[in-house]
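Entry type: protein chain
Record version: 2
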Amino acid sequence: MSINTNSNGYVMAFAIGVCVVMSSLLALTATALKPAQDAAAEADRQKNVMIAAGVVAAEDVLSVAEVQKRFGERVQEVVVDTRSGQVVDGKSAADVAALNKAAVKEAPADKAASTRYRVVAKTKSADGKIESIILPISGKGLWSTIYGYLALDGDLTHVRGVTFYKHGETPGLGGECENPTWCAQWKGKSILDAQQKLVGIGVKKGKVDPAIPAEKAHKVDGLSGATITSNGITKFVLADLQVFDSYLTALRKGS
């Protein structure tokens, strides 16, 4: 019995068969590659934590294994209850999703419950003193949510470094938030004013005037042609610092 390869039925059956085979192959490939992709994504996150803390430089080319090794040697991560400002003993980053889910169940009307528990990283000097605290920061820019890390020096007041590593902002404009040269301006800026009030770090429209003490201490140059991105960064950096304020205050008091 001959098959009419020109019939609509044959063409449809052939197309369906090709789709099934290709989709199966793609699914198998995606499943096989997922562990490697997850490991690469986690290594990228770990590297950005270390960039903010000054443990590695943005231009350093490191393998996944090298990133994991340095991170394990220099960085410790803890889970913080942002409501109480205390570290949750015995919990790791893997427990955060479940902790936040339980927090939402406990207080469904609380909009902040879904992010009540967060992971904070820290590095210590050889004598065991806190060298830096690295806080996760994120918020809306112009086109996307911008993710980054803000590291504070051991005094928990001055910026040690910052990195913005994941976003969808316009290249050459808002996308310049990831430029190491621009990020370098943050180093040494103070998140507290002279009265020890939390003021964050502002991204100014235009250039910072070093003759104005408040600008010199708390602001960085704006991103040219990216006012909305700049304003967004100013807003969400302060908002995240406010979330961690009770934790940082407890650390300053030696709690």
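Comment: The chain has one domain: 40-53+61-252.
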